[in-house]
Design a protein that fits this description.
InterPro entries: IrrE_HExxH (IPR010359). It holds the Pfam family Peptidase_M78. This is ImmA/IrrE family metallo-endopeptidase. With 102 residues, the protein is an alpha+beta fold. It is 52% helix and 13% strand.
Length: 102
């Protein structure tokens, strides 16, 4: 799992996405993406550690797929499911190569 996490962080950095991976947050604090600054904050205290690759890929996808206007619109509850679904699909696309090896 650590190899996947490292590869995802390298992917982010190679795509000009800043990464903060911190153990200074409470376990219930969600990881998030800041679209305008092209950065992600990942909570290393995530209670379900097995979810970290998906969480990281999801937040990367927010930055890659959304622009600043998307981020501002995302605060509308009517639009939020669309952007979360978009990030989930992007996350799966990022993770498939790690889990489907020939």
């Amino acid at each position: 799992m650590q190899e996947i996490i490292n590869n995802l962080f390298n992917y982010a950095l190679n795509h000009d996405i800043g990464v903060v991976y911190t153990d200074k947050l409470m376990p219930e604090t969600k990881s998030f993406a800041d679209i305008p600054t092209r950065s992600i904050v990942i909570n290393a205290n995530e209670p379900n550690q097995q979810q970290l690759p998906l969480i990281i890929a999801h937040e990367i996808s927010h930055v890659v797929q959304c622009d600043t206007n998307d981020a501002q619109l995302n605060f509308s509850t009517a639009l939020k499911p669309h952007y979360e679904q978009k990030a989930n699909i992007g996350a799966i696309d990022l993770l498939i190569p790690f889990y489907h090896r020939r």
